[in-house]
Amino acid sequence: MNISTRENTVFELIAKGLTDREVANQLSISIATARKHRENLLGKFHFTKSSQLATHYFRLNPDALKKTMTCE
Predict the structure, then answer these.
(1) How far is 36 from 60, CA to CA, in rounded Å?
(2) Tens of pLDDT, residues 20-72
């Protein structure tokens, strides 16, 4: 699956639970652009829900899940 560098960044932020508004703020892009990136990712992976994207992200990047679960 080919996704752009920006889509990969959005993919990671979605997996972290960020909304389109939060993604837009973090990346200094419009909410419409953040939404479009999410829609593109859903289409590329043939998913219908963002939760499916998050699950898939952590399947592809299991070390990322370990980082989110560590307590400091």
Answers:
(1) 22
(2) 999 999 999 999 999 999 999 999 999 999 999 999 999 999 888 776 555 55
* CA distance linking residue 50 with residue 62, whole number of Å: 18
What's the CATH fold of domain 5-64?
Arc Repressor Mutant, subunit A (1.10.10)
Q: Write down the pTM of the prediction.
A: 0.85
DSSP the chain: ----HHHHHHHHHHHTT--HHHHHHHHT--HHHHHHHHHHHHHHHT-SSHHHHHHHHHHH-HHHHHHHH---
